[in-house]
Amino acid sequence: GWIRPYFQPVVRTVSRKMCSVEALARWEDPEKGLLPPNCFIPILEQNKEIHRLDCCIVRQICQLYRKNVLRHEEVVPCSFNLSRLAFELCDIFSYVEENVKEYEIPREMLHIEITESALSDNPEEIKKNIARFQNAGYQVTLVGRLRKNSIALNQMPFAQHRINCRFEHGPLFYIEFNLKLFIYLLFVKCTIISAVDADTILP
Questions:
Q1: Tens of pLDDT, residue by residue, the chain (203 residues)
Q2: Which of 8, 41, 98, 155 has the fewest Cβ atoms within 10 Å of its own Cβ atom?
Q3: pTM value > 0.85
Q4: Using CA atoms, how far apart are residues 188 and 149, in angstroms rounded to an integer?
């Protein structure tokens, strides 16, 4: 197919070493070239086909992981996003498990990402599905710009939260970063928090 995962490295600020990667779906059109997600994801969501994209990316991640292992190449954990509709239109947990077993991937090497917007509809059902992943040994991360009145902050069983921010890269960069992080920490309890500059995400 034309849709492939592009891997964005996640680098620790202290050691400056890559600790994991994030899989981002991109469409490689033979005529139009590389298409960004806003060109095809809204259409897939509108037609309730977005779960097929999620399944496609999951399978390719697992296939590439197995290839790298067989080539004796270094492997790191990979995170990928699951849409809200993936939980409604298919048994996404069983699909992930099927691929994990087929390609012999340790569950701790796959990190599930859920956006805050996915929790707006039927949060209890999403919560049950998140628990299935966590009980099986997967790490589940909440991604977004959280507010103190967010359902996710008090009710959802996330071990890690990732904040997407936009920073001005100037002399006040670290002051702004720490201020945003401090305000966020006043309202949330979790094991790990990471902040990502949205301007550094792949187009």
A1: 689 999 988 887 677 788 899 999 999 998 889 988 889 999 999 999 999 999 999 999 999 999 999 999 999 999 999 998 999 899 999 999 999 999 999 999 999 988 777 766 777 788 888 889 999 999 888 776 555 445 444 555 555 555 554 444 555 555 565 565 555 555 554 444 444 444 334 44
A2: 155
A3: no
A4: 10
